[in-house]
Model the fold of this input.
Amino acid sequence: MTIYLDHAATTPMRPSVVQAFAEALPVVGNPSSIHSQGQAAKRMLEEAREAVAASVGADSVEITFTSGGTEAINLGIKGLYWARNSSGVERRRIVVAQAEHHATIDAVEWMRTHEGAVLDWIPVDALGRIDVDYVREALADDVALVSMLWANNEVGTLQPVSEVAELAKAVGVPVHVDAVSALGYVPIDFHAAGVAALSVSAHKIGGPVGVGALVIARSASVTPLIHGGSQQRARSGTMDAPGAVAFAAAAREATVALAEEAARLTVLRDELIAGVQAAVPEAVLRGDTENRLPGNAHFTFPGCEGDSLLFLLDVAGFSVSTGSACQAGVPEASHVLLAMGLDEPTARGALRISLGESTTADEVAQFVAALPGAVEQARAAGYSDRVTVLGH
Amino acid sequence: MKVLAAMSGGVDSAVAAARAVEAGHEVVGVHLALSRQPGTLRTGARGCCTIEDSMDAQRAANMIGIPYYVWDFSERFKLDVVDDFIAEYSAGRTPNPCMRCNERIKFAALLEKAVALGFDAVATGHYANIVEDENGNRELHRAAAWAKDQSYVLGVLTTEQLAHSMFPLGSTPSKAEIRAEAAERGFSVANKPDSHDICFIPDGNTRGWLADKVGAEQGEILDRNGEVLGKHEGAVAFTIGQRKGLNVGYPTDDGKPRFVLEIRPKTNEVVVGPREALALSEVAGTKFSWAGLDPLASGFISEPGASFECHVQVRAHSDPMPATARIAPATEGVDNVGDAKGPELIVRPHEPLIGVSPGQTAVLYVGTRVLGQCTIARTVSAVPVGV
Done:
């Protein structure tokens, strides 16, 4: 029986979501059609939009559904940048944190290469928290936008979103927040946060893959990436009503019981951390110990290659991760850990264990019991760049 | 046994993995990430370790029903294979990077990691056989499919490496049967072209790639008497025996074409001469190894240093030539530029070998058995200067 401890990569779809999704799938009607069937689909879609909006403290008009988190992030960054540069005033600087997800890093790098954007990287400290003082210094009218995470997807560190938003507001710079890994685990209040745009994704909270949203403040302006029938405020394309319904069902469930579930996960996570540190004393917990996602535990194991550990644990029946799953299957030292100041060998020994709604105390205990043997064997295998004994 | 199937994404390693499963082993597929720029697709038979190869390997592993992982050896590959390739060419030698990869990556870095993680053997799609003698000693032999035989590039393996190696394709009489079997198994890679050339030089332009890495400066082309015949655009890109691209004028004095005889990287000179001057009566080197028992333990000689009869092969697909070999003790005063000190393996072909470069590997065979190999560091011309 495989134990799934990789909820940060994707989550099992909740049974209630599967049911809502399945009931919505056969409904005929394009939400943009004028006839009654179209209007019925439109009603389904708009109810979903309202539910998603409620889950993040936004108004439904502020929700633009996307194909997922990556599209939302691309729309947030590129859309804000282009809108900020559409009035004749040149604002080329993007102030962005070093330890962002690849969706952000690759999007801003593309903007640099193709659109002449100038990237101003916000350093992170040893815990993975962005340097607010740096942001304060960097902010000026020539900044197109600030982009940051709500919570780091690898090490789980919560970021000072409101502080940055306040600083940015003072100089009129919009802030985009990647909240993909935060939704459903920490309370998100879009209006209270005071940011211009916020990205979320359904499959991280028990919803289906292929649906996400960019929350765009009424006051913010975003230039669309995809052009066509103007079905939404910042995106064209026929609306995926069943996907939106499933997203709404997941968002509702994930946020209604958030406080209880977060408390339960925090207890499990702290058991896991204590268990790992007792079983493998040299393991180093990465990320902020207090201000972190309730389901996230992240360690480095000195002398171990993360992919050896992952292999051994997988064979033993545990699904875990070395970090972000988005690197084309090629294991590399995590840029997040490098940004936190770790050297490459240390960073290669990373393992992320992420708990979720389906996780039980028994699963955590089984993992803690299996870990020391795997660590010992992985350490014997050493780093893959070590000098070989065989050969001549 | 617990077997790690090294899966390149090609048809051979896919079938090898499937056969290892059917032989009753517990098999895990592993694709080696050797390039730090994997974001490309293959074009025909060129390129390696691309996203496409990784996806093909994973697809085959899924169809076989085995777990699949990607392990990163790009750093070791760069150090042991790519940098070594550049250094060897820069020193005027002609290395074989595939042999180096087998020696240092597939059957060293990968094998060591596999053994440490609980595997008993590494299986690959190489065409070669492992045979055990009556005492359980492992011998490396040519594959049944003579045309596809890859025992040459495995000639670098040592007893320890052979002990954990598995070649499930060795007994298949032809590649066509492997492709047919792959098609029958429904593998998408059944008709994927064979890979050729050097995997880390995707466009196949070795000369251009080398010029990029080590720089190319104009130098002189000399004959064997030191007379300048012309100019070249960089000595490192030449190989011994090369005829094309010399630009020394035609016809030559004696009306015969000129071939590269020697490369002198230090002075950036290329020495050319007639084809006869390429003939070698002896090749030797101090970097040698035995793929299993050595000649004495195998009973080919009765005392250390004695000569034995064998066949020598100097390229992956050249014909084996009858030869006499022996190990000369270090005391005979070997003075090989770039070679290690120590006993030297000396191979004398019965007929002269044509166009062999230092850096190439001489693999010794007795019948179908691979006895061992030596990196050629020293050669003796069969024809004196002036002939």
In short: The interface with chain A takes residues 28, 31, 33, 38-39, 51, 54, 58, 67, 69-73, 75-76, 79-80, 103-104, 107-109, 111-113, 116-118, 156, 158, 160-161, 287, 289 of chain B (CB under 8 Å). Chain B has three domains: 2-185, 210-273, 278-381. Residues 284 and 346 of chain B are 4 Å apart (CA to CA).
